[in-house]
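USER:
Working in pairs, take the chain set out below, taking as long as you need, and write a paragraph about the fold.
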Amino acid sequence: MGRPTHVYANGNEIATKATTGQASACFPDVCFSPPPPPPAPKVGVPVPYPNTCFARDLTKGSRTVLIRRKLIAKEDKSYFRTSYGDEPATPAFKKGLITSKIKGKCFFVRWSPNVKVESKCVDRHCDMVTHNHSNPPNALLQAYIARQSMDTEKCADDKKKIDDNCGPKPDSTQKPEKYNWVKEHCGDMANRPGERSDVDAAVDTANAKSDPCLNARKCQLVPYSATSNHKKTDNPKQGGCCPGQTGHHLLPDGMFRKPEGKAAAVAAWVAEKEGRDEKKMPRNKLPTEDCWDGYTEGGGLTICAEGGNPGGGSHDALHEKTKETLSGYLGTSRTIPYTEARDKVSDIVAEEFGCKASCIAEQLDSAYGPMRKQSEECGSLGSATVLAHSGMSGDSKRAMNAGRIGAIGNR
């Protein structure tokens, strides 16, 4: 099987230049940008930008201990050399509101408490990083997203299924050190979802169920940023989904968005640049629900599903199942307890694909816990709520209306 790509500390993947981890769409990074016509100030106007940094830019890492011959991120030393996203800001102006910089560095501010390399604690998946850093940073903190380990008691059985079924087939011609599970198991799903019809999606769904590897991999959730339908694609050799699969958010993106602020956010984005189409606005420009400040679409966990968006297959089936399962909340309540939403979608995966519900729930907690604002007011993940949303069109409006009716009834 060659050298391992993914190595874990405390159940989370170690940050290394060998992976495709990233800290995505940290918002806002406020920088001075070209002003509108006079009487706007000549120094530009402060505009918020989403910032992202990538594992490929890791700098000043380990020298003697490596993963796939690539350096490892270390406590208080390593950083990502460039924070992308604020390039439209004008270099001739003040640049960052706080740092007077654009495209600054990203630094880890958390790390493993007890796993060390070269006498320094290692940085990991879900540890927080700064963006557009000088001193202090110009943007808020954001979690670095790689992947969480399945090396836990709750996930032991599901991990064994993946290990047992996703290796080279008996007639494989691939060299062990260059083994690529996608070439071995994805078949026709090597083509992207948009290039395939609903009939193809139905065939793909049947093939995925009959392939022990693809069926087993349903149990390992993947950050949306590591799926082929996201512009920052995870190398299939390292994980992710088949190129022809779609990353389906088990907890829909709409659960973490505040619908009351959507209209204002869209208007502000369209006004920033002439000719913008509101349908192309990145979802991370939408405001998040209270206390979910660290949530990003790319960091949300998905299951590898067959079919596009929309596109039939298991992807459509999962949407319908989610809507059916949450029907008691949709249109009658603005929010749903996070733990209840988590357990309901975990049960869907267990029923449909034979995964352990407790393993799915544990993976969801591992990803969404660090996204929640840590404060007395927000409380623990166990007491959190999310918007009552199935991922289907119209749910945001129904949740808002249910909230208004509830407020009137409580007067």
Remarks:
- The mean pLDDT is 76.
- The first helix runs from residue 156 to 165.
